[in-house]
Amino acid sequence: MFQNAVSWIEIPVSDFDRAKKFYSSIFDYDMPEIPMGPVRMGFLLHDQQNGGIGGAIVHGDESNAPSKTGPRVYLNGGSDLDVVLNRVTNAGGKVIMQKTEISPEYGFYGGFEDTEGNYVYLHSMK
Hints:
Blueprint: E1 8-12, H1 16-27, E2 33-36, E3 39-44, E4 54-59, E5 74-76, H2 82-85, E6 94-103, E7 107-113, E8 119-124
Parallel strand pairs: 1-4, 5-8
Antiparallel strand pairs: 2-3, 3-4, 6-7, 7-8
């Protein structure tokens, strides 16, 4: 059995600069980016040195396109996902699910539509 079900995520974007601004705004950081051949990648913050699972926004890979119906991605919403969710509208996105309790043992989730049309979800324990 693996320690984690997920090892990496990529969120496809059609306008890299707009998506980078959106994710930088809602998570309150300056997103690092690197080109990988024809693909631009902007990295979501994670503690790689201690085994944290990471991900990136990705532009230039024609095999991926933003989607509302693709796999569900749950990003870490920090200690309280409302902090991130409350920044979504001002950053140009749309809240599609307010903070909702899963159970006392599993915490909360909520969701948003990003500036690219992806449905993305957040998770936090309180």
